[in-house]
Every structure is written in structure tokens, then in C-alpha cells.
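User: Quick one: structure for sequence A, then sequence B.

Assistant: Sequence A:
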Amino acid sequence: MSTAPVLELRGIDKSFGPVQVLHDVAFSVYPGEVTALVGDNGAGKSTLVKCIGGIHPFDSGDYFFEGKQAHVSSPRDAASMGVEIVYQDLALCDNLDIVQNMFLGRERKRGLVLDEDTMEEMAAKTLLGLSVRTVKSLRQHVSSLSGGQRQTVAIAKAVLWNSKVVILDEPTAALGVAQTAQVLELVRRLADKGLAVVLISHNMNDVFAVSDRIAALYLGRMAAQVKTSDVTHSQIVELITAGRSGELGLQNGKEATA
């Protein structure tokens, strides 16, 4: 585990009209670790992720990537640094095969035609590197895949581009027990390969199964960022629902961490 965060946000504020959604949020993500971002509906998780991904500009605050201040004004800026986000809807096209989906919008060409051989080789190498063996053929249409396989393809698509930070929005939502276990193993492998992984989840069992750190948002404020081994399930639930758990969390409106 690294002592220096690859991604660090400081003092992030974000409003939509008169409604302030994020209040002085600090957030750090470390290479080789899974950081679980948790919070109730409306806590600000999606807005924070969209600020990281360049979809929403924040009103004030600082964005650091690999120790240097960064200016991210679009998803292209975030992707060029190495930040990839896998949203809950996966953004996969059912009528395209796995290779076509993984290279959608970033197709490799040889002259004026698509370089199918290179794309298929890169897709196969990426899936093999993630120890994915549940896909029968790279030329399967995504419509024929199970929920767990679709999630796997979306994650592989994100890591194909030498990403350094991968953000996963509820990757196990609507999956069965076996498929959930498969996706969580993949999440853990991403971190073990040195990537910084952010896992957004409402499932505390998933959070405690794979995360190294937990960041709990409460009504747009970062209640606490703690090592998973330092807290209990009930403490995290209290941070999510009340913003504090004993001496941990928001104290008189200010963040306290363990």
C-alpha cells in the first residue's frame, strides 16, 4: 500500500442553483487499494464522482492527481490522466460484440479500415490479465451475456486504457450471489495489480469484503475516511445515517477521522 494518494480532493464545494450538494469535501484514493465510497441516497456520492470525472465542474476546491494539481473540465481530461468510471448503466451496446464494446469510440485503425486483429488481441490480453475466464468468445454480442459477464466487460473496458484510477458505481447491484462473488474478486484483482479502485456500494457486506478504506458521505459532507480494519459494520451504518459514531465522524459540523 502506498502512503501517497494517486487522487486527492480538498475542500470541494458544489451547488446546483440554491442547493449546495457538496460541502468542503476531502477525498483521497490510494494505488493498490479499494476505497469504498458509501452514503445514503442524496449524500452526494454521484455528484462527487461526476466532479472527479469532469462531468460537473466544482465551485471551489483543489484536485490533485499523482501529487500535482490538475484541472479537469471534461471526461476527456479525466480519461487522459487515467481516471475511468464504470457507471451503473454500464454504457454497453447490446448489438455489438465484446471487442466492439471495449473499443467503442476508441477504435484502432489500419489505414482507413478497422484493425480488428489488434483490437481483438488487446481485448483478449486485458481479460486474461484480469483472470477473466467466464467469457466463451470475444465476438459474443453483449446481449447474450449474463449480468456478471456484462459488468466484467465494462470493467475490462475501463482498464484497457492504462487507467490508474477506476471508479465502479454499484457494480454488484441486481447480481446474484455467484455473480457478485465473481465481480468482487475482479475488483480485488484490480487493486492487487496496483490500480486505485473506488467502489460505490450500499451493500456493507461487499464493502467489508473487498475494501481497504471507507469514505462515508453524510448530507454532502465527508463524515469520515477510515481504514476498513479500524471500524465495525455498525459504525459505518451510523456514519451513513447520522454522520457520526461516537467520537468518529462529524463533530460540531467538522470531520473527525480514526
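Sequence B:
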Amino acid sequence: MNASGQAELTVGQEIYGGWQQVTVTRSMEQCANGFELTVTERWPGQAANRPIRPGLRCTLTLAGETVISGYVDDVEPSYDKTAHSLAVRGRDATGDIVDCSAIHQGGQWVNATLLQIARDLCQPFGIAVLAETDVGAPFQSFNIEEGETAFECLERAARQRAVLLVSDARGGLAITRAGKDRAASALVEGENILDAKATLSWKDRYSQITVKGQSRATEYYDPEPAASASATATDSVINRYRPLIMLAEAHGANDTIKDRAAWEQAVRRGRGKRATVSVQGWTERPGALWRPNTLVSVTSPMLWLKEADMLIVGVNYTLDNNGARAALSLAAPEAFAQITGISGSRLAGALRAKAEREKNAGGSDCVCWGEM
């Protein structure tokens, strides 16, 4: 098997390879990536000793690159008359904050940033937190809601600051935004694309999204609320009456409510334009895996895309009798680019300039996704 299809699981000091079936999922839209590995050996013969147990710390590498650092969740040994097999499933260490309750002394923070809240919640799990972007202003007051998990608590705070919570593949949690890196290879129909499909949907999009909240007159402890704050964001593509009113997750100033409305509109617009493209192998070029949070040029007339910049939101790496493959989940970049702190960036400017060039060029058989 070539290096692009090699998966190795390290448990303790032992490295286990030779897996015949591999499934690994990495995504910008989840904070804990997961894997499933299977090996089957025919009788007769002594089964290879693989003392892998649930709860053990593990590290998974694909083509020599670490993609998951966490724990073994499930182990399934099985056998029949002709063979014995072993299946192993696990996730990043951040899987613990997905599963477990949010606990913090008093259940409240005062004038704390998202980074501080994340570190306080993750510290008991031994999970380091790194901010790769501006985490925004401190929360005047932020509370744990009864019964929510640590990730649900953090994800609620992250939505208010329009940032993403993702695994850093080293057992830690990263607070980040999208669209910094670009794949060296392009995805081209008839060349390296094995199969593809797209979903273009208006189901969860609205002509206007209004976010309502309340601003407090003074400090967080003032029991008297000030006048109600609200902001509206418009999706110019939706040409019929489809309004949505949302309540803000917490008290905030007018600027915060405005950012929340703009973020909600951009995310819904971007997530309504998705595609999945499969390619042979796990690497876009020697030594470099296809990675989430990467821009890639896509040309596929069947998907109405012509040299369009798409964002790789997630990658599903598989290995079976058909060899190693990668299924790339793609989204329109505005799903993540048009959020607080990014709308004025060079990335957003480049995307707008490219869209304008394509519009002015005209004459293309491909429908521009930006017009949908």
C-alpha cells in the first residue's frame, strides 16, 4: 500500500498498522473528529495481539500526518468460522467536552472573554485552548444553562462572537475563523474528480432575519433593562416574503445584535450551497492531506461551477477494497467569510473581486452560485 493510504494508530508505545478499512472524519463544523478502523484476518492462524482497550489514549496518523489525538471509545472484536476481526473507534480528546456537562464554580463569568471561559471549562479535561483569531469583547455576564454540555455552553458563546470551535488535531481546542489557506491542487471535472453532487437550497434561508435582544442600562447586575435592541440582515437573493425573527442568546449592545444578524444571514446563505466531491487518495499533493478550512478552486460544469473558489468544510478519508479516497465537503465561502472581523479582510475582498470579474465576463454556461 502506498503512503497516501497508510493509517497508523498509536496506543501507548505501540503502533498498529495494516488496517484494511479506514474511515476518518474531520470538519470545521464539529469540535471532535472521529475514526473507525477495522482489520480482518482469516483462519487458521494465531490472531495478532492488539491489546487495544476502550479509554486508552491514542494518536492516529494518515499518510504520516497526525489527524486525531484523543481516546479509544469502542473496541469490537468478533469472529466466525473463517475469520476474526477487530474494529476500533475513537475521537479527539475534545470529545469529552461534547459528552460531559459544563461545570464551573458559581456557573457564571463576569467580564470574561470567550478564551477565558473556554479555558476554564476545558482545564479539568486536560484540554488546552488556543485562540487563532480575535475572540471579541469580554462578556459582561455569561452563565451556564442548566443541563448543557461544556461544548454546548462554549458553542453558544462562540455564536455570539461569530467564531468557530475546532479540534487542533493535537488534543486541544482551537478558536478560529475560516479561509486562510489555499490548496495547491484544483478540483476539475474529468481529471481528478471521481464523483460529485451539489445541494442548492432555500429551505433554511430567509428574505430578512431580525435578531432581538435587550441592552442593560448599566452593569450586568442592574435589574432594570434598557430599551429593546434589534437588527435586521437581508438576503437579497430570496425574492419572496420569508421573514425570521430570532432572540439573541444573551444581552448585548446594538452592534453585537447587528453582528449576530449578519452572521446568521451569511451562514444560512452559505450553508444553502453545498457540494461533495470525491477524489482518489488522501493527499492533494505528496505529503499534504486534503484539509478542512482550505480554499480550493473547483471546475465542474455538471455542478454549475467554473473555476469557483470553494471552502473545504470537511474531509472524510476512507480506505477499503477500492483503495484510499477522500470525500470533500464544500461550501460557498460566504458561509464563513462574511462574519465579524472577516467581512473587511483581504479574503473577502478577493472573493468579491472574483465574483465581479465573473459577472462582467458573462457568456458562461455555468450558473454562478453567488447569484443563488
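The CA atoms of residues 213 and 229 lie 5 Å apart. Residues 3-90 form a domain with the Phage tail proteins - horseshoe like beta roll fold fold (CATH 2.30.300.10).

User: Thanks, that's what I needed.
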